[in-house]
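Fig. S4 source data, part A: sequence.
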Amino acid sequence: MTEQDMASLDQEVQDFRGRIKKEAEQTVLKRFPRVMLELDTLLNTEQFSLKNLTKVKSDPNIPVPPPGDLIDSEANEDSAINTNHMNHSKKRKLSNFHEVTQVSGTKVLALPNGVSPCNPFISEIVSIVKPRVIQLVEDANTIKMWILFLIPRIEDGNNFGVSIQEDTLGEVRTVEQEAATYFDQVSRYYISRGKIVAKIAKYPHVEDFRRTLEEIDEKEFLSLRLVVCELRNHYATLHDMIVKNLEKIKKPRNSNTDNMY
């Protein structure tokens, strides 16, 4: 690589650092307060109101088979057992049938009413919350790079401003990690709900499974509302912490007389 190429590469690196610094400072000073207020407003909308938990319930679209269907199924099973096992008594055949039914449940080849849908109310809230979680992860990453670029070289003494940078950096990393865990929460909800729907399809007469589905949906609604609260709080605390110590973060060795809030 020629000297000219090295100079060009160094200039690109400097431009990258300058862009990150400018973008991060604008994000903290202008966008953080706006997003914080938007999230607070969102929490006060009817969609996120705790008074409307009844709207969270969703029909799995799996009907309960009438008792007549069970009688017919039992009769068909008895007929098959009589054909294949003529040497067994009727009592033994019925006992075997009930044994199989208790273990394996109802055979599910297709749901009678078609697809069992996701909870539309929860899915709509997920579509609102998820992009905001992604944005917080991106914002935290930008702020983290900004502070790292501002940390001066290691020297003896006059490191109070550097400690402020490191404390702020630790808080930003914590926010970034917590925001990333919110994605796992959403995926675990759909997996858990899918398993319960499968149980309802296999055991349509067990009311407990249907009630469990309602409880899972209500729990997820409360969890998503809490996520929005945490997003608002993260934006508020990061903005407050950085603004109060902005001069020390930007110029950590300018003086040694300021105190961190």
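Fig. S4 source data, part B ends here. The chain has a mean pLDDT of 82.
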